[in-house]
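WARN retry 2 of 3 for item q-0093 after timeout on previous attempt; input resubmitted unchanged.
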Amino acid sequence: MAADPISLIREAWQDGQLAYMSEDATQYRFRNDVSLPKDYKTAMRARGGTGEAIDLRTLVLVLRYLNQSHGEFVKNTKGSQSITYTDRKDLEVFLTGKKNTSKCLPGLADSAVPSFEPAAKRLRTDDGALAVQSAAAESSAMAEVLSRERRLRDRNTQLLIPGKSFKRVLDFLQHAQKKLSEKERAAAGHKHRQDASGSHRSSSGASGTSSKRREESSHGVPPPPPPGGPSVAKHHRPSSHPQHHHSSASKGRPPPSSSKPSSAARGHKEVRGLAPIIIVPAAATANINMANAKEFLQHGVYKLPHEALPDGAPRPAVDKFMRTMGREPPGVPYVITSKAPDIKSNDWRRVVAVFVSGQTWQFKDWPFKGIQEGNLAHALSKMQGIYVGLKGDVVPENIKKWNVLRLEVPKGDRHKDRPIVAEIFAAIDKFLSAMDSQMAY
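OK item q-0093 returned
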């Protein structure tokens, strides 16, 4: 009786012998020296059982490339019979024994394909009754083992990515809402105290002026003219006790304060209302520079620098963009530049982030400690450091040492760019919130 090639393949898979199955250019050699041609047309048919017969080579290749994507499968099986993704998945579950039916095998019922045991465990003896009894006992034991199995993953839990959650975003949002509420309460309390103090001074001044006028009228002194009137000089009388008058007037005023505002207060006042500055590398080979930074940060679309600008178009040294991500229209203005401020410029207080390329010469002549020795700890404590690389590229060694936000943009999937930009602005917001920045960011 001719061997059934489908049963031979299923048994070889169950026994773990498929990888060791010998073959030559034209045929496969199964256990017990059963050989079949590779182009042997089996009973299975493509397109869900309505197409042409599937040859033996295709069935073997389905199992050999079981864990590959369909694109890789098509690439690795070039030259053999082509099958659709749906047929391949149907063949996988059937040939591996997960199901005993297949759409590619028309008219096949569950009872038509017997469930089989691994051949290595199968009793082969001349005593048929003993073999049947042993096989039944082994089948019963296997059924008991399978009944105790517990499924650990399903198609929903398989989609979960360990270590990925939105908890950090929610924590940042709660922190920002808390800070905003505290500022609003502080501003409301300050305004209430100012209103109460102004009302008290106005009432005291009015009552004092009225009593003074009544006293002058009782002694025959004419009331003073309105301030700035034409008869100011006419009714002005010099005081007979100028020194005493000066002393009395001095008592009513608080002594001038000799204290000056702190440097932090002056810094807040200097940057309040000014646009934040983001510095990008000047190198043309950097992944982020003036050629593509504006479109990336404003619209959430990444382009390679040489693709972002037309041929021959100059790159600006300074540019502006409106941050609309996470902000109400029309957005918040930001400044991007490849030229760092002068070493003594107050614009350093406005620098909120720097995109780094991994080269230490990018920070030459910056006014921070350790720059000349290549130590960026002080500089990166004053602004958020960001490195954006291309997925799959080698990360520079300096980037691994520096305290910067490391991100990767894909080379093809542009719909993933906006979440990366959102992560950049979330890091900047968190940094500025911790620094209690007064800029509108």
